[in-house]
Amino acid sequence: MPANLTAQYYDAEKKYKAAQTNRERLQALKQMLAMIPKHKGTDKLQGDIKRKIARLKEDIQHGGKGSKQHFRYHVEKEGLPQFVLVGPPNVGKSQLLANLTNAHPEIANYPFTTRIYQPGITSYLNFHLQMVDLPAISANYMEFWIPDIIKRADGLLLIIVLSTDDPLEQLETTVQILKDNRINLTSQEIKVDPYQPDIYLKTMIVGNKSDHPLAPDNWEVLQELYEIEFMMCPIAAKTGANLNEFKKNCIKLLNLIRVYSKPPGKVHSTEKPFIFKKGCTLADFTKAVHHVFSKKLKYARVWGATKFNGQKVNRNYVLTDEDIIELHL
Questions:
Q1: 100 pLDDT exceeds 80?
Q2: What angle in degrees, to the nearest 10, is found between the helix axes of 243-253 and 93-100?
Q3: CATH class of the domain at 82-253
Q4: pLDDT of 24-45, one tens digit each?
């Protein structure tokens, strides 16, 4: 059963994603719950909203009693691909987050300004991506909970600054710190033994302050050493230079595609596609829409580049970018 979410629901959802405090998030979630159509097609979504409301109430209650601030060391993905911004102090991670998203992290010219994770959402060509700014890591200090958050992410953006004499040292030190925490960086798809604690995380090297006089020579050296092994992208976070190319590379790094849901007899919405990795199937799509479709799907129709309009497909159909899918129970 399609969810048929209303415009008022999506307005409340936008407020939730733009909220900067737990109280603002709680108010937006309550509005989402009030505006969501009440039927079987939204049961799972209603349950998710109620769980978020309960967690926020608990967090607000802990903070309101004068106790130590209460953090859950887990960043909810909100159904989106999640990238973590990782790097040494003062490389511009918070500035990048501020320019990419509606988040408002503290930005200052001194080390370890960021003390807790800060998520935000960025968009490009209807791809919606979650960016999470993390506190800086160095050989001298790293918050104990950072590796755990990194390991749960879909992709890692290793930020270094090109305006200094030591970008190579920044990069190599950061890579070693992560490796010491059993986080290995790669640009390839690697199958990992589930019984081993090590993980391999798809990574892009991002060189910030590409507009600095030292940047061209520094970037050339880094490319010579790492371009074969990693995807790389120079940016200027403060001015916004090359950020569209940066976002395009994030999509390419994870091999992402957009898939749209079409209610039977209605026009599909292009505002909020489902995001999948290449190779996912119709079975994966049904699970993302609602567990009822996963269990009781009779058939589906697809409008896309590889099929004629409205062609019936089975659960093994491999999704392609910008497919429009109509599910039938």
A1: yes
A2: 90
A3: alpha beta
A4: 888 888 888 888 887 777 788 8
